[in-house]
Design goal:
alpha+beta, two-stranded antiparallel ribbon, 6 helices, 2 strands, about 10% strand, zinc-finger, metal-binding, zinc, zinc ion binding
C-alpha cells in the first residue's frame, strides 16, 4: 500500500500507514515535487566530473560482465539501473537531518561534507518480469539493512 499523496512510502496496511503518518507528514510531498527535487539532485551530480566518471565505470563494468557471459543473447536489450544514496559523512549531521525534532533551517546553514554510495548497478533487460519500482524498493532495503548492521539507526526514524 502506498501513501496516497506522494506515492513514495509503501505500507503493508492502512493501519501501518496511519501509525507512520506523524513521521511521514514532515516529508510528504506530491510526486511532481519529488520528481523536480530528483531532477535537481541529478543535475548537481552531473556537475561533478569524478562522480560521472565513476558512474560510467560502474556501467562499463556491469556491461562487460554481461557481454562476457556465455549465456548473453547479443540481441537482448539491457537496462542498467544505478542506485545512488547521498548522505552527510559526519554521523551527527546525518542524524540531525533525519530527526524531525531538529529544526531544518539551522541545518541548511551548516556546511556538511557528503558521501555518495553506489548501492547497486542492476541489469534488468526485462522490466516487465522485474518492475524497476520493486527493484528499487529491494535495493533500498538492502542499503538500509547494511547501514543498520554498521551500527546506525534506522533511516528516517
Amino acid at each position: 500500500m502506498c501513501s496516497e499523496q506522494c506515492k513514495r512510502e509503501y505500507y503493508c496496511s492502512k493501519k501501518c500507514q496511519k501509525t507512520d503518518w506523524p513521521r511521514h507528514k514532515e516529508k510528504c510531498q506530491p510526486m511532481e515535487q519529488h520528481l523536480l527535487d530528483m531532477r535537481r539532485s541529478i543535475q548537481k551530480i552531473q556537475e561533478v566530473p569524478h562522480i560521472m566518471d565513476d558512474l560510467r565505470t560502474a556501467i562499463a563494468l556491469e556491461l562487460l560482465s554481461i557481454f562476457q557471459s556465455p549465456n548473453t543473447d547479443p540481441e537482448e536489450i539491457h537496462v542498467i539501473v544505478i542506485l545512488v544514496f547521498i548522505r552527510p559523512c559526519y554521523p551527527p549531521d546525518y542524524f540531525d537531518l533525519m530527526n524531525p525534532n531538529v529544526p531544518l533551517e539551522p541545518l541548511l546553514q551548516r556546511t556538511m561534507f557528503g558521501t555518495l554510495r553506489f548501492v547497486h548497478v542492476l541489469n534488468r533487460a526485462d522490466v516487465e518480469e522485474e518492475p524497476l519500482e520493486e527493484q528499487y524498493l529491494l535495493s533500498s532495503r538492502i542499503h538500509e539493512a547494511s547501514f543498520i548492521r554498521l551500527g546506525n539507526r534506522r533511516l528516517g526514524r
